[in-house]
Amino acid sequence: MEEKDTINDLALVHRQLAILKDYFPELTETQQSQLDALFPLYADWNAKINVISRKDIDNLYLHHVLHSLGIMKMLRFKEGSTVMDIGTGGGFPGIPLAILFPEVQFHLVDSIGKKIKVGQAVAEAIRLKNVSFRHCRAEEEKQLFDFVVSRAVMPLADLVKIARKNIKKEQQNALPNGLICLKGGELQHEILPFRNQAVSLNLSDFFKEEFFQTKKVVYVPL
Predict the structure, then answer these.
(1) Cis peptide bond N-terminal to 93, omega within 30
(2) What is the pLDDT of residue 146?
(3) At what angle do helices 113-125 and 29-48 cross, to 10 degrees?
(4) Which residues contact 83 (CB under 8 A, 6 or more apart)?
(5) Whole-prediction pTM value?
(6) Is 42 helix (H, G, I), strand (E, B) or coil?
(7) Low-confidence ranges of the chain (pLDDT < 50)
(8) b/e map of 113-137 (b: 16 or more CB within 10 Å)?
(9) Beta-carbon neighbour count of residue 8 at 10 Å?
(10) Following CA atoms 182, 185, 186, 191 in sequence, which dihedral angle do they give, to the nearest 10 degrees?
């Protein structure tokens, strides 16, 4: 029975990977091979260090990788941009974004050292050259970036407060520099203080899977 479950799980993983590739048909061979490698790497690490819910690891490509790439629906970063990922955990959204934007530099920050260790190991295994990592609280990071990204780590007001100090003045992208974060559920209360600036997109407008029905990507210029 256990062996059958494993086969079924792998079938689910491969279906999700196919869905992901359908949404991004322009992937290069290198990007495809890097994405292919993510599941065995994360599954192996997750057995040792729990960075993704053990019940959810088989949904890696849909719930974690594709969700991370939802940030691209708000903005495609220009070559040469710099991006910090606050509270990256095991590398989300930073690692999937770094795969899709090889000419953009990503800096992944988390306060939990073992999670940073997983992210570093995955990035090294897939030869991802455009990422750096730091084990620290986001408040401690003083470098400047074009954008800060994050995935549901804290309320929007707290994210804005932390990210503001890290935003460059010089602009080079289609949107003014700022914060782009992935959020779920009802956001009216969170967005209210930024209602004249914030832009929110429903990911269900781009990804048809049920998981994305309540998921949003939010941009706040800083």
Answers:
(1) yes
(2) 98
(3) 140
(4) 77, 94, 97, 104, 105, 106, 107, 145, 146, 147, 148, 149
(5) 0.95
(6) helix
(7) 1-7
(8) eebbbbbbbbbeebebebbebbbee
(9) 11
(10) -10
Q: Which residues of 151-180 are buried (b: 16+ CB within 10 A; e: fewer)?
A: bebeebeebbebbeebbeeeeeeeeebbbb
Secondary-structure percent of the chain, ordered helix, strand, coil, rounded to 5: 50, 20, 35
CA–CA distance, 154 with 11 (Å, rounded to integer): 34
H-only helix segments in the chain: 2-23, 29-48, 67-69, 94-100, 113-125, 156-163, 188-191
Supply 188's token pair.
């009216």
The span from the CA of 23 to the CA of 21, in Å, is: 5
Q: Give the integer Cα–Cα distance in Å for 185 and 216.
A: 8
Q: Is 201 exposed, middle or buried (0-12, 13-18, 19+ CB in 10 A)?
A: middle
**Tokens 């549901």 sit on residue:** 152
Q: Which of 150, 144, 198, 205 is nearest to 175 (CA)?
A: 198
**DSSP H or E segment with residue 179:** strand 178-184
Q: Write out the E strands in 70-155.
A: 82-86, 105-110, 131-135, 147-151
Q: How far apart are the first and last CA of the chain?
A: 53
pLDDT of residue 55: 87
